[in-house]
Amino acid sequence: MVTKHEQIIQHIISLDIGHKISVRQIAKKLNVSDGTAYRAIKEAENQGIVSTIERVGTIRIERKKKENFERLTFAEIINIVDGQVLGGREGLHKTLNKFVIGAMKLDAMMRYTEADSLLIVGNRVEAHELALNEGAAVLITGGFDTEEHIKELADQKKLPIISTSYDTFTVAAMINRAIYDQLIKKEIVFVGDIFTPYDKSFYLYGKDKIKRWYELNEQSKHTRYPVVNNKGRVIGMVTSKDIIEKDSDDLIEKVMTKNPFVVQEKTSLAYVAHMMVWEGIEIVPVVDQAFQLHGVVSRQDVLKALQQIQRQPQVGETIDDIISSNLFASDEDETMYQTEVTPQMTNQLGTLSNGVFTALITEASSRFLLQLKKGDLVVENLTVFFIKPVQIDSKLTIRPKLIDAGRIYAKIDVEMFQGKKIVGKGLIMAQLMDR
């Protein structure tokens, strides 16, 4: 049975790209409360099928494919530059292929301006008109307006003309930064990228009898299944251990484990991997905000995805990438590591930031355990001591020492030196995960 929440999402998906949406309109059309409509629209925004823009409203946009993350919609540009729409609202859902800075003569500017591009320019009305005729949107900097016939042309062409108070080069830097952030997000794998969807998953109802578990086991060879109620909400998990020596006519809801660990499609792969190791879980139900079952993700799915990620090149450098690439094993002792404090690793005072200090200790410990063939570490507890500030361009030596280790855990003491002076210490309690 489809819930009201799902009905609203399906209705939104059926709308034309660029269609304007409001809470009141949805509530009236589908005969639901304003609160239900509002929550469903927010969920649609999380799914990337609508976008809310200040002073414009909520519009239906095309769901962005992962390979197109480096392209921004004009609706996103408005939010990035805190702009306002002067005309061409119907084109806000479109994506731009490139942007052009209009800091040149008109004829030279037009050589670079093409369809689906964005011209960033000041108060140059002729440039606004020429760009729109070429099929490009316009972003006017410096807080300037444009003439009425330009706004009418933008409406006619369905190409946005936007105004922002920022200057041209600040705007270009902001858009570049947004594209870079999108590229980093593109590399993050979510549960929604790897899970087995509802229609291909095996599950049981709470009112099913245990003999139904045996039927599914014969059909799928799986031993763990989500349990749902008659509305499709996840209410438990049942495994082979739960049904051993139980009567085959007993109800599943009597033997299942209640309140199971669940995830949503937007949950990151790293988090799921951590929880599966931590809790010893083989399979996790994937649900929406209303706990409706959308599918399942298994430990095999997670391991395959992790292996795939390791083979892929990284697009952008995060702080963790910088830390990892600048950390080297010492020539004197392979269990000691050396690094140099670069500008990206410092805080506003020019000293090593607390977050980078912690990341260095964790990265050195991880490499140390791999060298001892103990496996990957999942940090359970980390205590750090900042003894002395570390200046930019300082050379550091990190010395991890194994205090205690078992089959699934390790305790590591870490010391950080600048020359012969100790500048910080850390104590890590970690669980171990076989590679």
Describe this structure in words.
By secondary structure, the protein is an alpha+beta fold. The protein contains 16 helices and 21 strands. A six-stranded antiparallel sheet has the order 16-17-19-20-21-18. Strands 4-8-7-6-5 form a five-stranded mixed sheet, sandwiched between helices. It has a four-stranded mixed sheet with strand order 10-11-12-13. The longest helix is centred in the middle third of the chain and has 20 residues. It starts with a helix and ends with a strand. This is CBS domain-containing protein. It holds the Pfam family CBS. It comes from Virgibacillus indicus.
What is CATH's topology name of the largest domain?
Answer: Udp-n-acetylmuramoylalanyl-d-glutamate--2,6- Diaminopimelate Ligase, Chain: A, domain 1
CATH superfamily of the largest domain: HprK N-terminal domain-like
Sheet/helix structural class: alpha+beta
Q: Strand share of the residues?
A: 25-35%
Judging by the overall fold, what is the CATH architecture of the largest domain? Answer: 3-Layer(aba) Sandwich
Which strand order does the major sheet show? 16-17-19-20-21-18
Shape: flat
**How many angstroms does the end-to-end distance come to?**
42 Å
Low confidence ranges: 65-69, 312-316
* Helix percentage: 25-40%
Number of H/I helices = 16
Work out the number of β strands.
Answer: 21
Profile the largest sheet: 6 strands, antiparallel
Total tally of structural domains: 4
| Name of the CATH class of the largest domain | Alpha Beta
